Amino acid sequence: MHRITRRTLLTGLGAAGLAACTSGRPAAPPADGLGTGTPSAVAPPPVTVTAATGPVLVPGAPLKVVVLDTDVLDSALTLGITPVGAALPVGDTGFPAYWPASRVADVRPVGPAGAPDLAAVRALRPDLILSNQARDGDRYDQLRELAPTVLTQTTGAPWRANFQLHAQALSREAAGAAFVAAYQKHAGQVAQALSAAKLSGRRVSLVRFVDGGGLRAYGRQSFPGSVLADAGVGRPDAQNVDQSDVELPPDQLGRADGDLLLYSVYGDRARAGVDSVLTGPGWQALGAVKAHRAFPVDDQLWFQGLGYTAANFMLDELQRFLGA
Hints:
Blueprint: H1 3-21, E1 47-51, E2 54-58, E3 65-67, H2 70-78, E4 85-88, H3 101-104, E5 108-112, H4 118-123, E6 128-132, H5 133-136, H6 140-146, E7 149-152, H7 159-169, H8 173-196, E8 204-210, E9 214-218, H9 223-230, E10 245-247, E11 260-266, H10 274-278, H11 281-284, H12 287-290, E12 294-296, H13 299-302, H14 308-322
Parallel strand pairs: 3-4, 3-6, 4-5, 6-7, 8-11, 11-12
Antiparallel strand pairs: 1-2, 8-9, 9-10
Helix pairs in contact: 1-8, 2-7, 7-8, 8-14
């Protein structure tokens, strides 16, 4: 998708949640500590949220938030909060490109997701830490010594429910509801456009080359699989299953075929074996490849975005790829 299209969508989504976002935390008192004498300088009271670890008392409308995975990065930015720090997957060299550089310019890297630099997190003096048990369950006690820590159980398929918890922890529930409604409307419009163009029956294949993990096909119980379902498109039989992903051995590349084939690369391209597969006879024999209907997509968007802003961009890209 062209950058101008993404910027336009970001503007529209921002407008959808603007009224709700601006009703969040009141203005902070001046740095001299003298206060303004107005009630708006009083911080809202803390709230209790139910995380995967149990009840967690979090500050009302926290200002200094550290996020330790890509889903909470999308949630925070979508809800109008720029984290002070963020951890990114080992295979990533920077923040997701689907966000404008200006949006993440002030976010401090705090090491890799799954192994964050706790000293770097501590130095940021966060009000709140957001992550999930799959990444940070083993260091939960260490994290909650630094700041109240809210963990979901995992990422991927439960991304919608996770967003609700993130919005609650960030005191952005009204804004969250606005973004959910905007996404549902968008998905409905895309589904309608595809149906009108008689494209809903097209089978869309999702595959990912993973550094050290081979080639994987993604089913319905995955983030991109759920977005495709929201758009009402079909899936190849091998991927129309209640699983997140399955490995595709070299002799089973036929399971990657579809009317449209979307593929991404995570990590080092050479170590993921991308070029050898793409130029090999098995890949070249796929119907989607022969029909010139196989397209690379941004891994940070399609497989790591795990949130409503990423999902909105994916809907638009899907519609463009299908030609509706």
